[in-house]
Amino acid sequence: MAENDSAQSIMRTLLKLAKQLVIMLLVFTLVSVAVDIWRSKDINTMDLPNIKALTIDGTQVDVIAMSYEQPVLVYFWGTWCPVCRLVSPAVDMMSQHYFVVTLAMRSGNKQTLSQYLQHKQLGFSVVNDPRGQYSRLWSVQVTPTIMIIKNGQLQYFTSGFTSLPGMWWRMWMA
């Protein structure tokens, strides 16, 4: 009988912890969404500027044209950004399955970026934005920033830490 009471007590405790975890996740999600909405207030979602540029490996990219084939994940980041170091491996995984265009903001010259990518074992394509011209054009002020573009329209926007499941979900929903 004592074992049965002990098992029930443990189950009640686990259920309480699970309930608290679900509530915390919901609050975190709501706060994240609110912050993304607030940060995106300056972004022109109707008339997106295009990114037509050469990557550091010489490949021509045209984000708007690519977005008519399939959704494009556009990733603004910097080698100097600590949160980007956590997000970049997930973006690299996404680049193996989707169109991904990354823009390295104020991160040095082509050689410096190439060395950084090799050191971190990142294979995604990179457009160098040494003076921040693309980030200004797109009103990006926070790194990392991820945008999902489909058919020339901004579908999703987020800044700060983003998980791999969060990226998959946004690409799937676009």
UniProtKB/TrEMBL annotation:
Keywords annotated in UniProt: Membrane, Transmembrane, Transmembrane helix
CDD domains recorded: TlpA_like_ScsD_MtbDsbE
Residue ranges annotated for the Thioredoxin domain, each copy included: 42-174
Residues annotated as transmembrane: 21-38
PROSITE patterns tied to this protein: THIOREDOXIN_2
Name this polypeptide is given: Protein disulfide oxidoreductase
Pfam families the record matches: AhpC-TSA
InterPro entries in the record: AhpC/TSA, Thioredoxin-like_sf, Thioredoxin_domain, Thioredoxin_ResA/DsbE_sf
